[in-house]
Amino acid sequence: MSSSMSSCEPKMEKKKAIVGAGISGLLACKHTMEKGFNPVVFEARNGIGGVWSSTIDSTKLQTPKNYYQFSDLSWPLSVKETFPDQSQVMDYIKSYALRFGIFTQIEFNSKVVSIKNLSTNEDEVCSWELWSGTGKAFSPKGKWNVVVQDVLHPLEAPKVYQVDFVILCIGKFSDLPKIPHFEQRKGPEVFRGKVIHSMDYAAMNKIEAVEFIKDKRVTVVGFQKSALDIAAQVSKTNGVRHPCTLLFRRVQWSGSENLVRLTFRNLNRFSELMIHKPQEGLVLWLLAFLLSPLRWIFTKLIECYLRWIYPLKKYNMIPDHTFLKQIYSCMFTVLPDCFYERVEDGSLILKRSRKFCFCTTGLIIDDEVDPLETDIVIFATGYKSDEKISNIFALNYFKKCITGSSTPFYRECIHPRIPHLAIIGYSESPATLFTTELRSKWLAHFLAGKFKLPVIKEMEEDAKRWGKCMRKYSRENYKRACVSVMLQIYCNDQLCRDMGCNHMRKKWFLSEIFSPYQPADYANI
Ligand SMILES: Cc1cc2nc3c(=O)[nH]c(=O)nc-3n(C[C@H](O)[C@H](O)[C@H](O)COP(=O)(O)OP(=O)(O)OC[C@H]3O[C@@H](n4cnc5c(N)ncnc54)[C@H](O)[C@@H]3O)c2cc1C
Ligand SMILES: NC(=O)c1ccc[n+]([C@@H]2O[C@H](COP(=O)([O-])OP(=O)(O)OC[C@H]3O[C@@H](n4cnc5c(N)ncnc54)[C@H](OP(=O)(O)O)[C@@H]3O)[C@@H](O)[C@H]2O)c1
C-alpha cells in the first residue's frame, strides 16, 4: 500500500485499514470488499480467528451454532453438534476466509502500535455538528496515520500507512489481562508459587497445560466462563488428592446447554414486546407493562429449574440478582459438564470471598487466620478491554472518548466524536458473530455512501437513550457495550432501517411474531 494518496480519487479507491483478523475483522473485510473497497487487514498474529485460535482444550461455543453462523455460509453438514468445539469453529472461520478471498487482504505479523488522526484537533472535533464535520464516511481532511510494527522484526522501524478510514476489530478478550490490585507486600511478589492469567493458561497446548497443573494445589480466581472451565479442567486432572479451589466474589447464574437452546428459541418479536424500548410510544409501553408478569414468570421458572438441577442452595450458590438482570447484560455462562458432581466428590472447592491477598505460601482470604495454601493461582479475572482500545490512539482526546464515559457507541460501533473510524466487535452479545455481522453490513453500506449519519447531538442522544434502557433492565450489571439478549431484533431493525431494507424478514405474520431471528434471516443484505 502506498503511504499517501490524493483527495480527488474515486470513492471506491479510498484506503481503509482494518485492524485485527478475528471474526470481526474478517466480517468487516468481506462486507466492505463486497461494496467494492480494497481494504488492508493488519493482524498482529500469524493466523486468523483471534480468540478462537488459542483457547483451553475444553472450549466449545456457548451459542447454538445457528446463531453463531455467517449469514451466507452455513456450518458444514459434518458438524452435527449444536455447540461445536474450538477446532470446528476454527475450521469454519477458515473456510469463510477462503470462500470470500479474505486471506489475500491480510498482512500477518503486523501489529498496529498506534493510530493518529492527521488533521483534527480537539477544538475542531468539539465544534462539529456533523460526525467528522460532514456526516459522511470520507472527507479530504479525514486521514489517519496507521503505525505498524513487523512482529517478526521488532528492531526494525515501524511502517506508517496513511488511510482514509480505520475499522478497529482488535477484540475485547485478549492481550491486556485484568489483574486485581493488591497493597504493597500483599501481592503476587511475596508468593512463592506461580501466578498466571487465564490468557496464559489458554495459550498452553493440552500437554503443557496438564503438566503445569498436575498434582499441584491450584486456585482459580473468578466466576465467569474462563474460571469455570479452568477449574473444571484442573479438578478433573487432579481429582480429590489435590482439589482445585474456585475463589470468587460474586455468584452468577450459569446453566446447561439445554437451557441455552431454550432461551435462544424464544428470542422472537413477542418476547421483545415485554421490554419497553427507546422512543416507543404509549401503546407499546402499556403492552410491555401488561406483559411484564410473563417476564417475571419466565425468570422465576428458570431460576427454579436451575435450583432444581444443581445443588445451589446446599453450596450457598444462589445469586443475589435475578436471572433476567444477568442475561440483559450479556452475562450467561454454560456450566462445564459434571461441575457440581466435582464439587460433591470434593475435587472442586467453592469459596466466596470479599477480599484476599497473597502470603508466601498462598492466599489470605477475608479475615481468616489460616492461609489457603496453594502452589498456583490462575487469575480468570477478565480483560481491560477499554484500555486496550484507548491505548491504540495516539491522541489523548480520543483515548478519553473511549475511557471517559459509560455511554454506549452509536449503533454500538461509531463514537460520535471519533471521526472516520468505527469499532466492530466492541459490543458483547449472546451471539457475537450475529451482532457483529449485521454491524459490518451496516458499516459497509455507510462507507459506500448509502446513508448519512445524523447530527452528532442526535447520535449522542440516541446512544444515551439506549444506555438508559439497558441500565433500566440490567441495573447494577450494566455494561456499556452490550446488545442485550432481549433487544437483538430491535437493534437489527434499526440497522435495517438505516440501510433502507425491510426489517420484517419473515414470510408469514405468525412467524414474524413467534419465530426467532437468526443470521440466515439477514443474508443478501
Ligand atoms: C474463549 C472464548 C470463547 C468465546 N465463545 C463465545 C461464544 O460461544 N459465543 C459468543 O457469542 N461469543 C464468544 N466469545 C466472545 C468472542 O470474543 C467473540 O465471539 C469473537 O470471536 C470475537 O472476535 P473479534 O474479532 O471481535 O475479536 P478477537 O477474536 O479477539 O480478534 C481480534 C484480533 O485482532 C488482533 N489484534 C489485536 N490487537 C491488534 C493490533 N494492535 N494490531 C493488529 N492486530 C491486532 C488479534 O491478534 C486478534 O486476531 C468467546 C470469547 C472467548 C475468549
Ligand atoms: N465459549 C466458551 O467456552 C468461553 C470460554 C471462555 C471465555 N468465554 C467468553 O470470553 C469472555 C471473557 O470471559 P472471562 O471469563 O475470561 O472474563 P469475564 O467474563 O470478564 O469474567 C471475569 C471474572 O473475574 C472476576 N473478577 C474480576 N475482577 C476481579 C477481582 N478483582 N477479584 C475477584 N474477581 C474478579 C469477575 O467477577 P465479578 O462478576 O465479581 O466482577 C468475573 O467472575 C466472555 O464473554 C466469555 O463468555 C467463552
Give structural notes.
This protein is of the alpha/beta class. It folds into two domains: 16-174 and 385-522, 3-Layer(bba) Sandwich (FAD/NAD(P)-binding domain), CATH 3.50.50; 177-252 and 332-382, FAD/NAD(P)-binding domain (3-Layer(bba) Sandwich), CATH 3.50.50. Helices cover 35% and strands 14% of the residues. It is built from 17 helices and 18 strands. The chain has helices at 23-34, 86-99, 122-127, 198-203, 206-213, 225-238, 257-265, 269-272, 282-309, 323-328, 339-345, 385-391, 396-403, 432-447, 456-474, 488-499, 509-514, and strands spanning 16-19, 40-42, 106-107, 110-117, 144-150, 159-163, 165-168, 194-197, 218-221, 244-248, 254-255, 333-334, 348-352, 356-358, 362-365, 372-373, 376-379, 421-423. The strands form five sheets. The chain has a five-stranded parallel beta sheet with strand order 3-2-1-7-18, with helices on one face. Strands 8-17-9-10-13 form a five-stranded parallel beta sheet. The protein has a three-stranded antiparallel beta sheet with strand order 4-5-6, with no helix packed on it. A hairpin with a 3-residue loop joins strand 14 (356-358) and strand 15. Helix 1 (23-34) packs parallel to helix 14 and helix 12 packs antiparallel against helix 13 (396-403). The longest helix is centred in the middle third of the chain and has 28 residues, at 282-309. The radius of gyration is 24 Å and the shape is globular. Residues 1-10 have low confidence and may be disordered. Residues 19-25, 42-45, 50-52, 55, 59, 61-63, 68, 111-112, 169-171, 173-174, 392, 425, 431-432 line the site of flavin-adenine dinucleotide. Residues 59-62, 173, 178, 180, 198, 221-227, 229, 248-250, 333, 380-382, 428 line the site of NADP nicotinamide-adenine-dinucleotide phosphate. Pfam families: FMO-like. InterPro entries: FAD/NAD-bd_sf, Flavin_mOase, Flavin_mOase-like, FMO-like.
